[in-house]
Amino acid sequence: MTTVMCFGSFDVIHPGEYQFWARCFWPAGCNNSFFVSIDNSSKIKFGNDAIYNKWHWVKASIFTLNKGNHNLIILNDEF
User: Fold this and answer.
1) Distance between CA atoms of residues 17 and 61, nearest Å
2) What is the CA radius of gyration of the chain?
3) Dihedral in degrees, nearest 10, Cα atoms 37, 39, 41, 46
4) 3-state class of 78 per DSSP?
5) pLDDT tens digit string along 3-45?
6) Of 4, 34, 64, 75, which is most buried, counting CB atoms within 10 Å of its CB?
């Protein structure tokens, strides 16, 4: 079951390509990923690395964004 964990909006002043990063802490292999959607786009899965019990940065997809307001949704993948 996928549930919304976090949502918000942000403004882009300069259109272009933006790299998404997340600061993550995975307690175990059964909960080491999440989904991201911007402006109701298809969900993109992030994570699935094997760094456990340690805060670390996860580099994710690049999004092409136009100037203006955008909506970001982070969804749970695993419980």
Assistant:
1) 10
2) 13
3) -20
4) coil
5) 778 899 999 999 999 999 999 998 877 788 899 999 998 999 9
6) 34
For residue 56, what are the contacts with CB-CB under 8 A and spacing of at least 6? 23, 24, 25, 49
Written as one letter, the residue type at 26 is W
The structure tokens listed for 2 are 């996928």
d(CA 27, CA 75): 17
- What single DSSP character describes residue 54? S
- 3-class SS letters over 2-53: CCEEEEEEEEECCCEEEEEEEEECECCHHHCEEEEEECCCCCEEEECCCCEC
- Report the amino acid identity of residue 38: I
